[in-house]
Write a structure and sequence with these properties.
Order of helices and strands: EHEHEHEHEHHEHHEHEHEHE
Bound molecules: D-glutamic acid
Helix content: 40-55%
Strand order of the largest sheet: 4-3-1-2-9-10
Structural class: alpha/beta
Distance between the termini: 30 Å
Number of helices: 11
Strand content: 15-25%
CATH class of the largest domain: Alpha Beta
CATH topology of the largest domain: Rossmann fold
Shape: globular
Radius of gyration: 18 Å
Number of domains: 2
Largest sheet: 6 strands, parallel
């Protein structure tokens, strides 16, 4: 029956943007989401710290019977997924900034990438940009401060808008026509980003691609849940869970959100 849930973790609430895409594509699967908000932001931590937290999160999900794990965090993927795959036998799906599609479609040959320091300084990120963005100018920007604001439920605030304005200016001045969102928290900034970006700049994130990859991995490993019931979705947060709840408010699904001492 393969009723075990799809395990999903992030440094906090951002991975819910990925969960929403997975739910859209795979409505019959059960899911278990872990928001390690107590330790956010991961982006300012060392690789060793990110790895340690990623192992802890993975073990929680495995102890709760997850059949595959989606690392719904660019920072944890770029810093820890290789070690996770080498340590555990379940399949892992990771997320990385969507540089390839942006580079392929950019007409101005200039692409902006907004991500955490942990992602932008990782070896993984650099090899991806070198492989997929030849002949393309990549304007990188660390989004310092954005994750904590989103965790506090302030994605649409004036404070966030002012920070984004500052971050986008060099990219706009360089003539980007694609902005890659390299952090799963950032899709919650899209309304503000649209307000600040010139109309020709397209925003791209990796949510749909991760959901498609999740479906592909389930299929390849014969792990689809054959139940025809809609799935059950458990969300756990280890800090204030109000933002987690509010980001799921608009979703029509069987959702339980709980606080966890973790
Ligand atoms: N959602 C995480 C990511 O995709 C945020 C990382 C952080 O906590 O800094 O990178």
């Amino acid at each position: 029956m393969n009723e075990g849930p799809i395990g999903i973790f992030d440094s906090g609430v951002g991975g819910t943007s990925i969960w929403k895409e997975i739910y859209k594509l795979l409505p019959n699967e059960n899911t278990l989401y872990l928001a390690d908000s107590k330790n956010a932001p991961y982006g300012e931590k060392t690789k060793a710290e990110i790895l340690k937290l990623s192992i802890k999160n993975t073990e929680f999900l495995l102890e709760n019977g997850c059949k595959i794990i989606v690392v719904a965090c660019n920072t944890a993927t770029t810093n820890a997924i290789a070690q996770l795959r080498a340590t555990y036998s379940v399949p892992f799906i990771g997320i990385e900034p969507a540089i390839k599609p942006a580079a392929l479609q950019s007409k101005s040959k200039t692409v902006g990438v907004l991500a955490t320091k942990g992602t932008l300084t990782s070896h993984f990120f650099h090899s991806t940009s070198e492989n997929h963005a030849q002949g393309i100018r990549i304007i990188e920007q660390v989004g310092t401060g954005l994750v904590p604001l989103i965790e506090e439920g302030k994605a649409q605030s004036e404070e966030t808008e002012a920070l984004l304005k500052k971050f986008l200016e060099p990219m706009i001045n360089s003539g980007i026509d694609y902005l890659v969102l390299g952090c799963t928290h950032y899709p919650y900034l899209i309304p503000t980003l649209k307000k600040l970006l010139p109309v020709n700049v397209k925003i791209i994130d990796s949510g749909e691609a991760v959901a498609r990859q999740t479906r592909f991995v389930l299929e390849r490993n014969m792990l689809f849940n054959s139940s025809d019931q809609t799935g059950r979705h458990q969300f756990f947060g280890n800090a204030d869970i109000r933002t987690l709840k509010s980001l799921l408010d608009d979703v029509d699904a069987k959702i339980e959100v709980s606080q966890l001492a973790f």
